[in-house]
Design goal:
By secondary structure, the protein is α+β, with helices and mostly antiparallel strands. It has two helices and three strands; from the N terminus they run βββαα. Strand 2 and strand 3 form a beta hairpin. The chain is rod-shaped and about 65 Å long.
Length: about 100
């Protein structure tokens, strides 16, 4: 995996009488855990928004492409298949976004 795709390994351990959360074998403080969760939430939101923008741009491109060629894009099978793919991507995005 590349630099930005290497994910840490989380595990649990015991510290005294309690539990500990470890990242790559190193114990995390409560503050570090909360920050990681907030960072994850923020990164997730940015990713979903970026993917939504790309799917909207793709849908706009497809509408323009097919409308320019056919004049009536909704009657073309290729257009319908391409838009079906866009709609499936949007469904996945909605699931990622918790909608």
């Amino acid at each position: 995996m590349g630099k930005h795709t290497e994910l840490p390994e989380y595990s649990q351990g015991i510290l005294g009488d309690g539990a500990a959360i470890l990242r790559d074998g190193e114990m995390l403080t409560i503050e570090q855990i909360v920050k990681e969760l907030q960072d994850y939430r923020d990164n997730h939101a940015r990713l979903v928004e970026a993917l939504r923008e790309v799917s909207d741009e793709l849908a706009d491109e497809l509408r323009g492409k097919y409308h320019g060629i056919l004049g009536y894009p909704s009657t073309d099978r290729d257009y319908a298949a391409d838009m079906d793919s866009v709609n499936k991507a949007r469904t996945l995005l909605a699931q990622l976004d918790g909608e």
